[in-house]
Amino acid sequence: MSNSRLKRLGPGLLFAGAAIGVSHLVQSTRAGADFGYGLLWALILVNIFKYPFFQYGPRYAMATGESLLDGYAKLGKGALIAYFILTFATMFTIQTAVTIVTAGLAANLFGITENLVVWCWIITGICLLLLLIGKYKLLDNLMKGIIILLTISTIVAVALASGEANNALTFQQVLPTSSVEVIFLISFMGWMPAPLDISIWHSLWAIEKKKQQQTFNTKGALFDFNIGYVTTIFLGIGFVSLGALVMYNSAEHFADSGLKFASQLINLYTQSLGDWAYVIIGVAAFTTMFSTTLTTLDASPRAMARTSQLLFSRLIRHSYIFWILMLIVGTMVIFTFFLSEMGLLVKIATILSFITAPFYAILNFTLIKSKHTPKEWRPSLAMKSLSWAGILFLIGFSVWYLTIL
After folding, report:
1. What's the pLDDT tens digit per position in 59-84?
2. Could you give the maximum distance between any two Cα atoms of the chain, in Å?
3. What's 19's domain CATH number?
4. The domain containing residue 80 runs over which residues?
5. Is the pTM of this model over 0.85?
């Protein structure tokens, strides 16, 4: 890709950075380790059915010049209030989950200290400085390098694992039947490729990109989104492959502790591939989680700042800084009490993301086909059909999950 084309990319890669995290490193690797390639159907299916609702974020933003949150306000303040409550209820848990995994990997890789509280502060502090000093422009530029590095390191890791694998693998697909397996399936799909509310983040990033680059238009935003979306699918399959090639049929069981999980993850790879693969696996894993930690620390406060402004009908000075500091404080509080329960946190966050997905899907679809979107950018018949199928799919799986609780 030429340098000029790379410069035109931005929000789509931020989307990829936010998406490629727990869903890929933790859940996709676990799926490969436990089921081999048996859950590829779930990965592909959920990416297809979620696609239109994610795409409607940048489509609406560039077609109208405003975020999805502004659009929700036009549909009625009830939708905006519901979003505010849902985000406030989940953003601390989500930030804690991704920070714990990142801290565990950092402690394992850099060896300065094994104290996850210290690493949590270090990582959060670095992310905060990057966001407050560099703002959106630095985030945009930094994420391009991170995604390129992540993609290359993951490809190399899969290639190495393929050459060394001794497991007898098939592509026979599996439908989980036990309650434990179904709960894992729901949590796997909950953040695959990401929670649907990231479409709101994407619309906000698209608005920021437009401020930085006036030539960034609707057509360019959709191309940018597709690049990011395909990247998340490709890397999702990559991490399933790593889990299947290296861990399938092994007697290893993942720990819930962030530090132990990170150590197990990297050690399993290096035991199978050799110590020389440590750096490659470590870079792929840490880059994955750092990009997620950085983008989520920016996005939730950005979304809550705009939501607050719309709900209270006035501009609140330094609202973004207020929300980012609140998110950090809340994350540290949860982190202190749930340090040894990383697995539980991840399950809670991913399951909440899945069962609230129909809410965001219906809102985005309603908005994009309404009078608030210019006619030329409303979805085609094919996209409408896929949207209806996606809504039914998300509702169906949510009901299935609720019936086995």
Report:
1. 999 999 999 999 999 998 898 999 99
2. 62
3. 1.20.1740.10
4. 3-404
5. yes
